[in-house]
Amino acid sequence: MPHHIPWEVKVKPHPGSSKSEIHNEPDWTKRRSHSIGFKNRDGGRTGITHPDHDQEQDYSNVNREAEEREHAEEVAEACRKRAELKHKIDSGELVNFRDVIEHQYSFHIRHPENRSLGWRYVLETTEDWVKEQQPWPANLERRKKQQDVEGGEEPVKTVSDGKEPDEEAWRRKTDGSSPQLTAQERTLLESIANEGTYMSHLQQNNGKQPCPQKNNRSSISIDEQDQFTPDNWLPRCPDLIRLTGKHPMNAEPPLTRLLDGGLITPNELHYIRNHGPVPRLLWELHRLDISDLKGRTTTLSMDQLKDSFRDSVINIPVAMACTGNRRRELNLQRKTKGANNGAASVGCAYWKGPLLRDVLVQCGIPPPTPTSERLYVNFAGADSPSEGPYETSIPLEYAMDSANDVILAMYMNDLPLPPDHGYPVRLIIPGYIGGRCVKWLRRIWITGHENTSYYHVWDNRVMPSWVLAKDSEAAKVLFHHPSTACYEQNMNSVILKPAPGEERSLQDVKAGEMYTVQGYAYNGGGHEVQQVEVSVDGGKTWLFASRKFPEYPIRHGSKFWTWLFWHVDVELSELVRSPGITVRCSDVAKNVQPEGAKWNLMGMMNNSWYTVKSEIITDTQGKTPATVRFRHPTEAGTLTGGWIQPSEEVKLAEAKQEAGTPEKKFTREEIEKHDKEGDCWIVVDNKVYDATSVLKWHPGGKAAILAHAAKCHQETTEQFASIHDDFAYKKLHECILGAVTEKTADFIKQTANPQPSTPEPPPDSPIALQQHRWIPVKLIARHQLSPDTTTYTFALPQGKTELGLGTCQHLQLGFHLQDKMLIRPYTPTRPIPPIPPNTTTPPTSPITTPIVSSKKKKSRRRKKPPSPLKNLNHHPPPTFDLTIKTYPPTPSQPGGALTSILSSLPLNETVDIRGPTGDIIYTGSGNFSISSSLYSSTTTTATTITPHNLHFTHISLLLAGSGITPGYALLSHIFHSLPHDRTKARVIDANRTERDILLKDELDKFQAESKHQIEIMHVLSHPSKDWTGKMGYVTPEIIREGLFPPDDNSVVFLCGPPGLVQGVALPALRGEFDLSTYFTWVGSQQESC
Question: Which spans does this entry mark as compositional bias, Pro residues (predicted)?
Answer without folding.
Answer: 828-845
